[in-house]
Amino acid sequence: MAIETLPGPSIPITRPFRPTLGFLAATPIIATATACLLLIVAMAILAPYLAPHDPLLLAPAQRLKPSSAEFLLGTDAYGRDLLSRIIFGARISLLIGVGAAIVSVGIGLVIGLVSGFFKWVDAVMMRVMDGLMAIPAILLAIAVVSLSGASVVTVLVAITIPEIPRVARLVRAVVLSAREEPYVEAAISVGSGLPKIMWRHLMPNTVAPLIVQGTYVCASAILTEAILSFLGAGLSPETPTWGNIIAEGRSYFQIKPSLIFWPGLLLSITILSVNLIGDAARDALDPRMKQREGGKA
């Protein structure tokens, strides 16, 4: 006896939201910011080939020279080529910015996942994070550098420590919201292992917010490194960083404003470009933004 099966109601299938890198050219402003950041990254990578002179070479006879064919941006108070120091300074700034973003996001992700899933861990860990956030980031960074000595690793650690609590609290908030979803409760009820729940059900919800937060951490780290160098608490003065160049040039600002203008301009462009890309990433990676745009249309 044949049994006829009645067709069930059609259920719309929703595809997962998969953003692409197209948002980097979504508007002329974002496209310009992306192009500027790519040029600065290329300048940092190709610094040994682009710099016309040794950035550490002292030439007292050439001190405070104006722009010329030999020194396109002139020289500083020690006769060093300003253009070469600015080009090599991009390496330190980008290295610390990207390094701080990667390390803080990695550590903050682990802390946030564990704190958001286990309430007994959350009670202790979040109080530690609150304590770190209560200390001004600059003061904490200066204290760490003063205790350990100035080096790229020390400055990186000093800048990363204040950023970890912010990332951890962001991930914790996402996990606390996601753990109440039916699919997470179903995974727990069927006895799925903790690593599987963390990896397959909770961590994917944190990817988009972490990418956006990582861009902001990168911009903040670049600015903090420049502040530390300007205050004399960063890398050694002879190391070519944008903060060091500005700090050395402030004494000669009235004689030669370009000592501060050019590194300050590149520092501002870098931070502004990273922040603009972060805003564009937030709009592209948040499906709710797409839904709101679709509703308005």
Instruction: Give me the Rg, rounded.
Output: 25 Å
**Assigned CATH superfamily of the domain at 28-45 and 78-260:** MetI-like
Q: Mind telling me the CATH class of the domain at 28-45 and 78-260? A: Mainly Alpha
Structural class: mainly alpha
Uncertain residue ranges: 1-17, 291-297
The N- to C-terminal Cα distance equals 53 Å
CATH topology name of the domain at 28-45 and 78-260, in short, is: MetI-like fold
Helix % is 55-70%
Q: What is the percentage of strand-forming residues?
A: under 5%
Descriptive notes:
Helix content is 67%, strand content 0%. The chain has 297 residues and is mostly helical. Helix 1 crosses helix 3 (82-117), helix 6 packs antiparallel against helix 9 (207-231) and helix 7 (182-189) runs antiparallel to helix 8. The N and C termini lie far apart (53 Å).
